[in-house]
Amino acid sequence: MKTLDYIHLDATGANKVVSGLQQLLADFQVYYTNLRGFHWNIKGHAFFVLHSKFEELYDDAADKVDEIAERILMLGGTPVNTFSEYLKTSHVKEVSGVSCGNEALNNVLDTFSLLIEEERALLKVASAANDEATVSLLSDYLKAQEKTVWMLVAFASGDCKK
Q1: Residue 131: closest CA among 2, 1, 12
Q2: For residue 127, which of 6, 16, 1 has the smallest C-alpha distance?
Q3: Is 12 a domain residue?
Q4: What pLDDT shows up at residue 160?
Q5: Which of 10, 47, 67, 129 is 20 to 30 A distant from 39 in Cα terms?
Q6: Tens digit of pLDDT for each residue in 95-128?
Q7: Angle, nearest 10°, between helix axes 11-41 and 101-128?
Q8: Nearest 5 degrees, angle CA 26-CA 5-CA 129?
């Protein structure tokens, strides 16, 4: 008995989606860990704002990790669950010792750029597989991430000048 038998998705298409979701899972796991480091180590005038923002972002990333892993399971895959495997495949690179707000924000924005690019590509794969649930999940991610990027860019732009 397989879930795919009941949700009417083709195994070949589902396997392609699972492959993309595995990549996204690895990237989100490394991103999550980077965010924890930023949260713990941030210093400077923007400490209170960024400390809270990084906590909000890593809580969101943790939720997404769980959703992605569950979607992999629904599609008949087994989510990778070791950091050694994540680090082999992740496009997000580990960072350590970042305490400067601008450096941390640039890393977060670069990571969002990478995630958004991957999610857009995976949307096409999921759509071709008639996997509307994954399309919906990724569309929701994109909507929230684009708004977060806009807000982070506005924050990082500094003081307004007339």
Answers
A1: 12
A2: 16
A3: yes
A4: 52
A5: 67
A6: 999 999 999 999 999 999 999 999 999 999 999 9
A7: 170
A8: 55
| Structural domains of the chain, count | 1
pLDDT at residue number 57: 98
Q: Answer whether 41's CB lies under 8 Å from 99's CB.
A: yes
Q: Residue 78 corresponds to which tokens in the numbers above?
A: 């087994």
> What sign results for the dihedral spanned by CA atoms 42, 43, 44, 48?
positive
- The 8-class DSSP code of residue 44 comes to S
For 80, the domain range is 8-154
Q: Which two tokens stand for residue 26?
A: 């690895």
Name the helix (H) or strand (E) containing 94. none
Identity at 66, one-letter amino acid code: D
Residue 100 falls inside a structural domain: yes
Q: How far apart are CA 131 and CA 72, in angstroms?
A: 12
In a domain, 160, yes or no: no
